[in-house]
Amino acid sequence: MKNVSAKSKLLLAVVIFVVTFSKSFAQLSPPGLGEGKNASWFAFGVRQSLDSLKQKESTTYVGFGQKSSPDESNPFSKMAILVINEEISNRYNKNWEYSYALSYRRSNNYDSEAPYEELNPAIEQEFRIYGRYSYIMEGNGLKWKNTVRQEFRKFFNPDFSNTEENFQLRTRLKTQLSLDLGSTKTHHIIGGAEVLFAISKENEPEKKWSKFDYKESRFTLYYSLSPHEIPFIFDIGYMYNLIGKGSDISDVNYLALDIIWKNPFGV
């Protein structure tokens, strides 16, 4: 796309402005869904405190994503992914937090050329293990969180036979800033920027390692509502996904919504 570079620079400037002037509420951000024009993401999660000090938490969620083809705009036109995720986090220090997680993902495969029909096989399964380590600074309604996340991703066809990509090691670097809107702490603005790097062990065309390289960037802007009267958090947001680099680059716009049920089993 000829205008992607200019668009990405403008969007990056907007995101930096917003988050610079914006307690992290850990919305269930959309996964990357590959090439398309527009995409949508919905997730429902349960967040449960695991100790009386509320330092340890479990977050379990189910989410699904849909997307359009690169040449049309409907973000709900094609099924793209189903995700089941479980993550345990521990805010063991005022400024430090770690977490670890297991995830299952079932992605739909489409041809990269028009008319963008399903491939054979049409489904790719992924089992993912990941860990995060975060440094957090907060005060006066602001929270700044910087995170490194390391992932191991293993891929299978629907019958658990090997895919072209055997497994992948992926490193993600993310900065996120949050702002409480008002003294009630029920309305929040959250902005984030993330870059992703990866190296893969291939099955085809030959069994070898790819080069460790930059893959994509993701920019998010969310409004979060956490009413005191009910144990739910509602997040609605936008993600801009910039895939690739140089002359081989594409972008996708995401509309995202998630609902999180807080402490259904008590504290």
How many separate structural domains? Answer: 1
According to CATH, what is the topology? Lipocalin
- Total helical elements: 1
Supply the helix-strand structural class: mainly beta
Q: Distance between the terminal alpha carbons, to the nearest Å?
A: 51 Å
Rg over alpha carbons: 19 Å
Largest sheet: 11 strands, mixed, barrel
How do the helices and strands follow one another from N- to C-terminus?
Answer: HEEEEEEEEEEE
What does this structure look like?
The protein has 267 residues and is mainly β. It has one helix and eleven strands. It has an eleven-stranded mixed barrel with strand order 1-2-3-4-5-6-7-8-9-10-11. The longest helix has 17 residues, at 4-20.
Defining key terms:
single chain; 267 residues; mainly beta; Lipocalin; signal
Brief account:
Keywords: Signal. This protein has one helix at 4-20, and strands spanning 38-49, 56-67, 78-90, 96-110, 118-139, 142-156, 162-180, 187-202, 213-225, 232-245, 248-262.
